[in-house]
Amino acid sequence: MAQGKIRSTTTGAGQARDAAAPAPRPRGRPARPEAEQRAAVMAATTWLLLNEGYAATTLEAVARRAGMAKKTVYRYASDREDLVAQVVRGWTDGFAPVMAQDVTSVDEVLPALARVLQAIAERVLSADAVGMFRLLTADFPGRDALLRAYQENGIERGTAMLAAWFQRLARRGLIQVSEPRVVAGLLLSMAIAEPLRAMALGLTPPLPESSIGERIQACLALFAGDAKVFALRAA
Q1: Got the DSSP string for 123-149?
Q2: Distance between first and last Cα of the chain
Q3: Is 192 in contact with 160 (CB distance < 8 Å)?
């Protein structure tokens, strides 16, 4: 009987250890890193917008396209408008690194500004961004919401970021600018708006198939008051 009791106690201890042990991980693909999941959601949203239209860009469709559960998509966006806003905001997020460059002298201002405009162009004049702009020229249910997301997270935010960069240069005594927001809007209109229109109409291909480097340099020359570009003749 003693032996029976000993065997019973040993078995009970083994069961307790088994119960305390972590459950084995289910087989299958390992979980994707957070950044990779987010990128997949944004890529799926962009593809659906440009290929299936705004109405088809539901959270369910994004989840299917991204190869994940709908609840995972909800971790990154609350609804379709939020998804679109984040896609466009992702483009303007790309401006930040070049705007963080250190400018220490007046001679560095225009070359630095050229790099800023080129970085903006590479995002705003990409095939996806041109496709989004082209989509906004059509009339469809939900256009107002998409246009609002594009305006707030794209045009307005990009202009505000460039204006803030001008203000930082002014505080360092490198430039004089009385209306940084107005100046930023005018410069972006000169450098970006016309190429975007031409690309949306199919007259020129988006970047990187085409280039606007020469246009940027011409804009900077005009912006800086280069007399070879534009000047009033003496009376």
Answers
A1: HHTBHHHHHHHHHHTS--TTHHHHHHH
A2: 123
A3: no
The CA dihedral of 178, 180, 181, 187, to the nearest 10 degrees, is: 110
Model confidence at 7, pLDDT cuts 50, 70, 90, reads: very low
Residue 21 three-state SS: coil
Tokens for 161, please give them. Answer: 């970021």
Cα–Cα distance between 65 and 194 in angstroms, integer? 33
Question: Computed over its alpha carbons, how large is the radius of gyration of the chain?
Answer: 27
Running DSSP on this structure, what letter comes out for residue 57?
Answer: -
pLDDT, tens only, 172-205:
999 999 999 999 999 999 999 999 999 999 999 9
Distance CA 149, CA 167 (A): 26
Q: Which residues of 185-219 are buried (b: 16+ CB within 10 A; e: fewer)?
A: bebbebbbeebbeebbeeebebbeeeebeebbeeb
Of 31, 64, 34, 68, nearest in space to 47 by CA = 64
C-beta of residue 162 within 8 angstroms of C-beta of residue 75: no
Alpha helices in the chain (DSSP H): 2-20, 34-51, 59-66, 70-73, 80-93, 96-99, 109-124, 127-136, 143-150, 157-171, 180-188, 194-200, 213-223
